[in-house]
Specification:
The complex is a heterodimer of chains A (201) and B (260). Chain A is built from 3 helices and 11 strands. Chain A has 201 residues and is an alpha+beta fold. Chain A has a domain of 103 residues: Immunoglobulin-like. In chain A, strands 1, 2, 3, 4, 5, 6, 7, 10 and 11 form a 9-stranded antiparallel beta sheet that branches. In chain A, strands 8-9 form a two-stranded antiparallel sheet. Chain A starts with a strand and ends with a strand. The chains are: A alpha+beta (201), B alpha+beta (260). Chains A and B meet through α1, β8 and α2 of A and α1, α2, α3 and α4 of B.
Chain lengths: 201, 260
Amino acid sequence: MVNINSLRIDSFAENILVDVSTAVGQTITSVKIWKSDEYKTSTFTDVSDLLSGISEVENFTIPAERLGLSYISGLYMIEFTSDEVISPDECCNSNNTTGVVANFVQYEECILNKVLATEVDNCNVITLSDCENCGDNVLYASMFLTSLYAAVKNGFYNEANTLMKQLDEMCEICNTCPAYGNTEIVNGTGYGTINNSVILV
Amino acid sequence: MEIWQDKCNRTPMDITSVKTLIASVTQTISKTIMLGDKAYSKSLLYLNTLVYSLEYAITQYEAGNTVYETKIQKLKKSLQRLQYKCEDICIYKEKYHFKQTNLPPTIEDNSITIPYTQPKVPVDLPPACTDRFNLPYISKTPYGTEKVFEKYHFTLNPNVDKMIIKSIYFIGNLGSYIKFKGQNLALGNNNVANLTDLNVPISFDEINDLRLKMYPTDFISPSGNRVIDATLLIYFTIAYKDSLNYSQELCLTGSQSLYE
C-alpha cells in the first residue's frame, strides 16, 4: 500500500512536490509520470532516481526540467510503487498508487484574455479587433474549462483529455503559442492529491 | 481509463457518473426555475463568463499579482454595462446575488431614507459609506420644502463620475387607508447624469414626468380609489470610483412626501 500524503505543483509551476509513504519497513521503489493523454503508454518519465530509498517515507521534488518543461501545465498522472509483496488473490490492496496533479492556469488566462478582447454594446457581445470570434469562443472555452474541472474531480480522465484538446485548440496552445506567461498558480486553478484523494488546490 | 479500478472490480466511475448526472439535472432544473425562459440566454452565458474571469483575476490580484488590476477594472466595467443594458441581466440580477469579492474597499449596499419632513436649510446627513480609511465617499444634502418636491443636492467626492437614477417606487395611502405600491419603474440610460463638477444639483423634473406617466390620472390608484397621501421613493445608484479607481456602486434611497 502506498499512501500519497501530498502531491502538488508548486506556486510557480516549476516543481512537483511529493510526500508519499508506504508500510513500515518497506520502501518506494518506482515513480513514473505520464501526461494524461499518454497514461499507461510506454511514454513516461521515470524519476525513481529521486527516491532516497532509506525509509518508508519519501519527501522530494520533481523539477519541471525532468519533464522537459520549464513550466508545468496540464494534467499528469504519477504512479508510485513500493516493494511490498502483495499476494495475487489479496483483495483491495496494491503496492502501487497513482496520483494526479494539474495546472489549468493557462486555460484561465486564455479565457481571461478572450473576455478582455470583447466588449458589451447594447447588450450585444462584440469582439474587438485582432480576436476573431472571441465573443463566441470565450463562451465555449469557459464551458469546456468548467467541464474540465468537473471531469478531473469525478475521475473522468478520458473526458478530461478530450476537453483539454478542445481548449488547446481554442486557446491556440499548439499553434501560435500565445504568451500566457508563467503565471503563478493560485487557489482553485489546479488539482493535487492529498491523502490519496484528488482535490482542487 | 483504468487507474481507479481496484482488484475488487469496483468501478467508482459508475457511482460518480450517476451523481454527476443527478447534479447536472438538478442544476439545470434549478437554473430554469430561477431564470425561466432566460436560462439559455447568451447574455447570461456571457455574464457567467465575466463573473468567472473576474473571480480568477481577483484571486491573482489578491495573490500579489498587481498586473491584474487593470484587467479587473475592465471586467467590472463590462459587467456594469451588461447589467444596465440587458433586460435579461436585470431580471437575473434581481434573483441572483453575486458573490461578493474582497477587493478593497468593500462596500455594502447602503440605504438612507431622507426624513419625511425636509428641513428648509441644507443639513448634512451622515455619510452613506466610508472607505477603508473611514472617510466618507459621499455626503448628501437635501434641499426643498415639505410640500414641493424639488431637488436634492448631492455633494460628491471627486471620484464620483456619474449618477444613475435607477428606479422609482410610489407608495400611497388610499381613501380607505390601504397602502398600495406603485410599480417599480426601471429607468433607462437617459437618466444617467454625468457629473462634471463636485456639486451638481440633480433635477427631479424628469422623475415627476415619469411619475405622471405611471399614474396619468394623477394619484388615482389602479383600483380607482383616490390617493390622499403619497410618498415617492426614489432609488438612486451612485456609480463612483474609489481611491484605487475601482468602479463601485452605492444604492441610496430617498423619499419625499408629495402632499402635505
